[in-house]
Amino acid sequence: MIEFRCSAILFDLDGVLIDSTRSVDRQWRAWAREQKIDEQKVMAIAHGVRTIEVIRAVAPHLDAEAEVRRLESREAEDQVDVVVMPGAADLIGAIPDGRWGVVTSGTRLLASARLRLGGLPVPKILVTADDVANGKPHPEPYLKGAELLGAAPAECLVIEDAPAGIRAGHASGMKVIALTSTYAASELGDADAVIGLLNRIRVARDGNQKLAISVG
Predict the structure, then answer these.
(1) How far is CA 117 from CA 19, 111, 121, 215, in A?
(2) I need a labelling partner for 129 at 20 to 30 A (CA). Which of 86, 139, 144, 166 fits?
(3) For this structure, is 12 an active site residue?
(4) Is the peptide bond before 137 cis (omega within 30 degrees of 0)?
């Protein structure tokens, strides 16, 4: 049993609250084929990183902002195989209002569409690719989430599924629980705890009004 004490929890979205891996994979591969770019080169960095940064890395000759709009519009419309992650609704429901938020590498359009599709509430604190200058693994997204929650970064706990997100959380001074939904446990070893399912996380309040998080 691993235990954490925190004031708030910051969730990544894709691969943590929403299972969209097959949709992401499908749309990125289709885009790569259209642009005549090696699919494997794209997929090696596509998860957990802002779309604009992936495009700039693999296709610097393209208008990155235009490609982001086109690609993420397709992703928002692609609802096949996009489902809520097991245990996500119960875990969110166990956290007091105002003590959690979502920090995603997707745009606000895409994040809102996926949350609604999964029947999950759109949180008051939603940090997207549109809200930061630097995406994960830079600490800016998670620092922004902590700021909006009114919590010190060291008092926040991150739940992630990608190495870039783990690095971003740690660079922010936060502890990180990693979920093996997108990457193998061997690739998530830098996290403070690694789990296979969200239902292994339990949330309670301690005597100091902090959240007591246990991972079993």
Answers:
(1) 11, 10, 10, 28
(2) 86
(3) yes
(4) yes
Write the pLDDT tens digit of every residue in 71-80: 988 988 888 8
Question: What is the pLDDT, as a whole number, of residue 144?
Answer: 98
CA 9, CA 109: separation in Å to the nearest integer? 22
**Amino acid making up residue 68:** V
Options 12, 38, 81, 130, the catalytic residue: 12
0.70 surpassed by pTM: yes
Q: How far is CA 66 from CA 58, 116, 122, 134, in A?
A: 15, 25, 26, 18
* Catalytic (active site) residue 14: yes
Catalytic residue (choose from 14, 97, 130, 190): 14
Q: pLDDT digits over 106-133, tens only?
A: 999 889 989 998 899 999 999 999 999 9
